Each structure stands twice: as structure tokens, then as C-alpha cells.
Amino acid sequence: MKSLKIITLSFILGCVLAVMPVLAQQNSTAPVTLDGRQLFKLSQINEFDAQTRANNANEILNQAVVSGKPAEVKVQEINNFPVIQVNGKNLVTVTDKDTPVGVTREEQAERWQNLVQDAIDQAQKERRPGYIRYATLVSLVCIVLAIFFTWLLGWLWKYWLLPLLPEPERIRETAAPPKVHLLAKVVLKLLRVGTWLYTFLYIANLFPQTRSWGQRISDTIVYTLAEPIVNLGSNSYSVIQIGILVGLFLGLLSLTKVVRNLLRSRVLLFTGMNQGDQETIATIANYILVCIGTVLLLQLWGLDLSSLTIFAGVLGVGIGLGLQGIAREFVSGLVIIFERPIQVGDFINVGQFMGTVERISVRSTEIRTLERLSLIVPNSHFLEKEVINWSHGSPVALIKLPVRIAYNSDLQKVRQALLDAAKEHPDVVDDPAPNVLFKSYGENFLNLDLTAWINEPKKQFLIKSDIYFRIDEIFRERNIEIPYPRQELHLRSGNLPVELSPELEASLTKLLGNKANNSQDGQNITLE
Q1: Structure letter (DSSP) for residue 483
Q2: Quick one: pLDDT at residue 514?
Q3: pLDDT score for 232
């Protein structure tokens, strides 16, 4: 909705920019119209400007139509000039300036006479009840068709186009940009607005009272789209031309994306390079093609590139004033692409997040976290802060699994059990081999660390979970005790520190003794 408002405001601004220069022009001709239909144009003669002549003719035509009587249109010669009369009133005097080359004044007057006669007859016909009923019926049919077409667009969007696009909940897994949905929604809104605008203009054209308003709106739209609004160098460009350029540029981006995918899947895939190198080469090739294609497109479009120097100056000032952040991210992106401290497919730690690098652009990097969320990180973050890259340099990573055992456990037996649990997992490598380290003595337990090397760092949490499950099974099979948290409460006196009856004291002592023997949390309470 916000994007649609921006587009609407841009369209209105374009209308204003396009119409203002048109309205400011002093045209040498003015149209003679009747009920919004242009009949012919009049030129300026002597002290009468074109608009004054046209206004007088329009007023006489409107009076002839409103009278409701059959109009008599004829040509009379006055002072050697043919004059068109309507019901005895002089409508226009045909001069040499009103006639095109090769046509005499009399021939032009005869043509205009027929046009005026037909226009008056048509205007009177459109004011009769029969035509009004017909136009009203057609208007209702148009409204019903517009409602149906609007509903059809929504139905096609919901049941045909939307299933073809990545669903919002699947965007994270497909890495498809949500801008596809936004573009489709904008196109849908524009089609609906265009449908109702066309319906309104068509209905307005049916009735003579509203035809002039519809004509003004359509003229405004035509002026907006066709009149030049941007001057670059010696050339001027209209909204239509700018729209064509934008469309060609979007086509260029789509073409370069296809070339990038083909290069990555049909060429680089068979070179034996790793995924990060393939992505880097494909990204660099994509940007080179975009730059070359943009320059060629602007030249083929007829734009003098030297006229863009002013925009380059404005861009430089913008970078100096408020675009330092964007420029910094751009430079950081280039450093990452060429130096490759991280690559697509690497498993990294960024702050409190861990994930796999999915995409690297010149501004930001997309990371797929372990929760399957898309994390967008500015490129400068990788150069200014510490980042752990589990995939950089060595293909294997070390994991540690803390284990506590009871004091009375056989350490050699425990060590072998831990090594067996680690070696049985398929993702644990044999070289370097797993190891068990005696870390420290605890209050009621011994601290051990099981270390193992894995070749899938991104699966380390699942591997740890699997190994812990296997450790629990082996400990139970080999009767290795896992200590429970213990607390010892010593009473120096044989009596509780409160005055209780002998019966209640005996009951509490017995109850505490039972809990010390049967408690599942392993608490040991000793009375002395």
C-alpha cells in the first residue's frame, strides 16, 4: 500500500510537470469543440486571437444545441470571405490562415459546414430520453464488467499467480527476494486502477454533459506520458521514454541474472572449484555485465553520457554529506568479494548467531541461521568485528562435550566408553582421533571433556546431541554412574533448633530420613 501511494504521488507530480509547460505555451490555434468533441481549429487573424474566435464559435454552437430546434447551417460570402452561419448567426469566417496548403477557402468552409451540421445533430440526439436510457444501460453494464474484471484479477492473483511465487514462509528456505511479491502486488493494483479509470472515462464519454471533463482528464494523461519532462543535454525525454528505459534496464538485470546462473551451473560447476570460488566469479561477472550493458543501453537510447557528469557531481556531494554508510558497505563488499575472508557456503559465527553464508552482495551478506532464519548483516561488520569462520582453512572443526562422573567410577572404563560413543558416530573423523581429557575435580564429581573432530561444523549441535544419547546408553549398559547433585546437612546437636514435642520431632526425623534415602534429586541429609 505504501508503494502504491508513492507511485500515485509520482504520477500526480508527473502530471503537473508535464501539463505546466503545455499550459504555458501560447498556441497560435484554438479548437472549436461541442460536447467535448473537437471539430476543427481556428487561427489568429488581425486583432482577434485564436482563443477568442474559438470561444465565440463554441457559444453559438451550444446555443443551437440547447434550443432543441433543427439547426440550419449554411455558408454565406461576406466581403469576399466565406462565412459559416448557424441559424442566421455568423459562426466563423474562413480565412487563408484557416486553410491548409492546396485547399481553397470555399472548400474548407464546405467541409466545416458538414462537420458543424453533423455535430449539432449528434449533440441534440444525445440529449433525448431514448439515448439517455441507452447510455445509462451501457454505463451499468460497464460497471458490472469492471467489477467482474477486478474480481477476476484478484482470483487470478490468488489461485494462479500466487502459487507460482515463493510463499512468505518458504522465502527463507528458497532465498527468493520478497520484492517479487511486491512487484506483483503493484502490477495488480495498477491493473485495477487502470480498469476503473478506463471505465470512468468511457462512461464520461457517453454523456455530453461529462464528455468534456473526461476529455480533459485523458488529455492530461496523454500530456503526462508524451510531453518531455526531463532534459539531459540536448535531448528531452517523456514519461513513456523513461518507462521504456526502466523496462529495458530491468530486462538487462534479468538477462545478467540468467547469464550468471548459467555460468555458475553450466561452466564453473565442472571446473572443480569450491562453491565460494564459483559464487565469487559469478558475482564479479554479473556486475561487469551490468556495467557494460548499462553503458551500451544508455548510448543506444540516445543519451549523451557527458550529460550525466552533473549527476556524478551530485552523487559525490551526497557521499560526502550523507552516504558514507552506503559507500562504506559498498567498499567492504568489494573487499569481501576479492579477499574472500568468508564465502558462500561457509559456516560462521556472527555475534550471537551461527549460520551458513547464503549470498554475498556489495552492500550486505545474507546468512541462514540454525533456526532457518535469514540474517542480513552489513558487509562492514565482517571487517570491523571478530567473526568465527568454521569453514575457513581447515575443513574439520573441534567440538567439546563436558561429562561428569562419580568419584567411585573407573576412569579407564569411563574413558573407553566415551571414546566408543564418539567413534561410532559417522560424522566424527578418525584423524585427528577423539580424545578424553581429565579437566578437574568437582565437589561431588569428576569433570571430563570428550573432544572430537567433525567434518560438518554446521551440524555440530545435532552431532553433540547424538553423541550424548549414545553416551547415556553406554553408561547404562556398563553400569557407569552419573552423579546427582548432593547436599549434606549436618546438625551439631542431637535436637532440632526449635522446640517441638517429642512425637513431632520423631515424625520429622523419620520423614527426613526417608527422603534422604528415596529422594530422586540425590540429596543426602545426615543427622548427627
Answers
A1: P
A2: 65
A3: 67
Q: Tell how far CA 33 is from the center of its chain.
A: 46
221: left (phi over 0), alpha (psi -120 to 50) or beta: alpha
CA 60 to chain centroid: 56
What stretches of 478-521 show up as alpha helix (H) in DSSP? 502-518
Q: Collect all residues with Cβ–Cβ distance below 8 Å to 383 and sequence separation of at least 6.
A: 332, 335, 336, 341
In CATH, the number for domain 340-389 is: 2.30.30.60
pLDDT, residue 23, reads: 41
Helix/strand/coil for 191: helix
E-strand ranges in 233-352 read: 235-238, 347-350
CATH 3.30.70.100 residue ranges of the chain are 397-478
The whole-angstrom separation of Cα 20 and Cα 307 is 24
Mean pLDDT to the nearest integer, 94-101: 86
One-letter amino acid for residue 153 of the chain: L
pTM of the model: 0.49
Contacts of 142 (CB under 8 A, 6+ apart): 199, 202, 203
CA gap 505, 51 in Å, rounded: 117
Cα 373 vs. chain centroid, distance in angstroms?
18
Q: Residue 476: which residues within 8 A CB-CB, separation 6 or more? A: none
- The span from the first CA to the last CA of the chain, in angstroms, equals 78
Q: Is 356 helix (H, G, I), strand (E, B) or coil?
A: strand
For residue 377, the model assigns a pLDDT of 86
* CA 109, 114, 117, 120 torsion-angle sign: negative
Reading the block at residue 99, the C-alpha cell is 486553410
DSSP state of 491: -
Question: So what's the pLDDT on residue 310?
Answer: 62
* CATH of span 397-478: 3.30.70.100
Residue 82 CA to residue 317 CA, distance in Å, equals: 65
CA 90/CA 77 separation, integer angstroms? 11
Percent of the chain exceeding pLDDT 90 equals 12
Q: For the chain, where do the domains classified as CATH 2.30.30.60 start and end?
A: 340-389
Task: Tell me the C-alpha to C-alpha distance, in Å, between residue 361 and each of 41, 332, 354, 473.
Answer: 59, 10, 19, 47
Distance (Å, rounded) from C-alpha 173 to C-alpha 167?
10
- pLDDT score of 326: 67
